[in-house]
């Protein structure tokens, strides 16, 4: 550990586009930097493969795929702007709290290991993100026991062997952290990040979109009346006042939506590696968990001892079939 560093609160993080924490829209959490880099590499390759697939279909004239390609290109841009975090093993509440406070507006994606420890870390992050005061431990039955003392005393048991992040969030009463705030879509369209009125108005969430619609309609009516030359000055003044009133209402609605977005923060999602792998680096290396390899007795050695070999032919055949199916359906998401 580096001199004067704080292992309880410090952590490794990086962004391909050097995105500042207060400007981050997506933060990806892992237990190691290897997992963070593996996730980035796998996801980037998948997106590029999908784009290439659509390009190939376009060249063959079988499908245009323009909208899908634009969506994928946007996904790639967002991935490159994201912040990737490694806790360096068991994450502390100090690490979580510090990064959450620095990136409150961002969506947080939990890529902890696909094991009971990783599931426990995901629960701890969620409770911290929801500003709950809590403690947790593994019970004698193997379940995770979470005691929430924020507003009294609430004891919840989470089954780690049949783990479901959404069900756990509901049981803990913090399901709201999984909700996506539609204001985030509009904010990504800002041409000037310092000006919340510089975004694509077609992406405004309700009720700000409704307020903008009234403002736009009244403004268009005012301009049309002025250009026609058939409307008297008094009526134009009334239309102008109506447009100003609707503009003010729109400004209030958008500012209110932005403040609510800042209070709620971004969405939290559970994003472990695929089934059969322990972590994202194992998935990158195609390093399946040992329990998924069949073992069969094949012979005896000269000393009469059993010789056990790992038979992977069937598993490899299934894996190749899965990969073929992925390639076949990759472009129909």
UniProtKB/TrEMBL annotation:
Composition skew (Acidic residues), residue ranges: 311-323
Region named Disordered: 311-333
Taxonomic lineage: Bacteria, Pseudomonadati, Bacteroidota, Bacteroidia, Bacteroidales
Protein name as catalogued: Toprim domain-containing protein
Domain of life from the UniProt record: Bacteria
């Amino acid at each position: 550990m580096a001199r004067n560093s704080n292992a309880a609160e410090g952590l490794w993080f990086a962004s391909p586009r050097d995105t500042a924490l207060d400007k981050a829209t997506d933060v990806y959490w892992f237990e190691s930097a290897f997992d963070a880099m593996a996730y980035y590499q796998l996801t980037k390759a998948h997106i590029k493969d999908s784009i290439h697939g659509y390009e190939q279909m376009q060249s063959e004239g079988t499908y245009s795929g323009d909208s899908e390609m634009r969506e994928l290109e946007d996904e790639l841009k967002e991935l490159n702007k994201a912040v990737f975090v490694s806790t360096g093993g068991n994450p502390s509440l100090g690490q979580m709290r510090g990064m959450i406070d620095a990136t409150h507006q961002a969506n947080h994606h939990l890529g902890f290991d696909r094991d009971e420890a990783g599931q426990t870390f995901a629960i701890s992050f969620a409770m911290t993100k929801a500003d709950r005061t809590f403690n947790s431990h593994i019970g004698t039955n193997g379940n995770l026991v979470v005691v929430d003392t924020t507003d009294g005393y609430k004891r919840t048991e989470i089954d780690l062997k049949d783990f479901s992040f959404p069900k756990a969030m509901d049981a803990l009463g913090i399901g709201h952290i999984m909700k996506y705030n539609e204001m985030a879509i509009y904010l990504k369209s800002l041409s000037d990040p310092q000006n919340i009125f510089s975004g694509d108005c077609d992406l405004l969430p309700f009720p700000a979109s409704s307020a903008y619609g009234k403002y736009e309609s009244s403004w268009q009516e005012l301009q049309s009346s002025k250009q026609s030359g058939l409307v008297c000055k008094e009526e134009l003044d009334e239309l102008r006042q109506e447009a100003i009133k609707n503009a003010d209402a729109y400004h209030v609605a958008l500012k209110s939506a932005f403040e609510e977005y800042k209070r709620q923060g971004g969405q939290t999602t559970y994003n472990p590696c695929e089934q059969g792998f322990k972590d994202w680096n194992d998935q990158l290396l195609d390093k399946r968990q040992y329990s998924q390899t069949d073992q069969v007795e094949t012979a005896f050695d000269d000393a009469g001892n059993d010789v056990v070999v790992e038979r992977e032919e069937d598993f490899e055949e299934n894996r190749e079939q899965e990969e073929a199916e992925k390639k076949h359906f990759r472009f129909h998401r």
